[in-house]
Specification:
Layout lengths: L1 H4 L13 E4 L6 H14 L4 E2 L15 H6 L8 E2 L7 H7 L5 E6 L2 H11 L2 H8 L5 H7 L1 H5 L4 H4 L5 H5 L10 H14 L2 E4 L3 H12 L23 H10 L1 H5 L1
Parallel strand pairs: 1-3, 1-4, 2-3, 4-5
Helix pairs in contact: 6-7
Length: 248
């Protein structure tokens, strides 16, 4: 849909400067967010943010009263922080005509990155020092998930869908999941895919009518160690556990 409507390379269009980029966890959003920070700074745009924070009250809802009280005269142009998606909240604080985007990646690799970067791996090593922490987690995930802190627990299963607004009790409700997928398709203009990031940014270029050199990026926080630590069989098994993210 985006590839057709976002604009032909030879068509006339004006650059769009209002953008909502939902940062999902451990999907490569740091690299992409730097693109938007750079563009916003170059064009003197206004960002949505809390002082000294990368997130907007995550995993709770945005503090709307604070953001409305601090809203610049010309409104907010770019929101590019960690938050849970609530469509009505974004419409309330962002300028009219804002483009909705986010970034996703393969669910198993995303989970492994969460596991590796949010202390679960170290917790497993402390409890079972002679076991592969990933393999042990896959052997009894529900029991070991209880080791996670409250701030991390919701990132262990279908966390991309959670970030996009689906509540945990609905993960096993097929009707709710289907409605959720349809809702995201309606509300987002473009979903970037980490494994196809270059191609995704070409679509973003067309959608935003930006120059290609404005989308140059540097890969940040690269760590491939975790992806090599489990067997293909375990990857397939855990993909079933991440059923909603896989569907989405």
């Amino acid at each position: 849909r985006v590839a057709i409507t976002a604009g032909h390379p030879h068509s006339n269009c004006s650059p769009k400067q209002n953008l909502y980029f939902l940062r999902t966890h451990q999907t490569g959003t740091s690299s992409v967010t730097n693109i938007f920070y750079r563009y916003g700074k170059e064009h003197d745009l206004n960002f949505v943010m809390y002082p000294l924070k990368l997130h907007l009250n995550y995993p709770g809802r945005i503090n709307m009263l604070y953001l409305e009280r601090m809203m610049p005269e010309k409104g907010y142009n770019i929101l590019s922080q960690y938050t849970r998606h609530h469509h009505s909240d974004i419409l309330r604080i962002m300028n009219s005509g804002t483009i909705f985007t986010t970034l996703l990646r393969h669910p198993v690799d995303q989970f492994l990155s969460v596991f590796n970067n949010f202390d679960l791996k170290q917790e497993m090593k402390n409890l079972l020092p002679h076991h592969n922490p990933y393999e042990e987690f896959f052997r009894r995930p529900d029991r070991i998930a209880m080791l996670a802190s409250d701030s991390v627990y919701h990132l262990i299963q279908n966390s991309m869908s959670f970030d996009l607004g689906l509540n945990t009790p609905h993960f096993k409700n097929s009707t709710a999941v289907d409605q959720f997928v349809e809702k995201i398709d309606r509300e987002f203009h473009l979903v970037l895919i980490l494994e196809l990031l270059d191609e995704s940014l070409v679509l973003l270029k067309r959608l935003m009518c930006w120059d290609l050199n404005q989308l140059v990026y540097v890969k940040l926080s690269i760590n491939k160690e975790y992806s090599l630590s489990i067997s293909d069989e375990k990857r397939k098994k855990y993909r079933l556990r991440l059923c909603v993210d896989t569907t989405a």
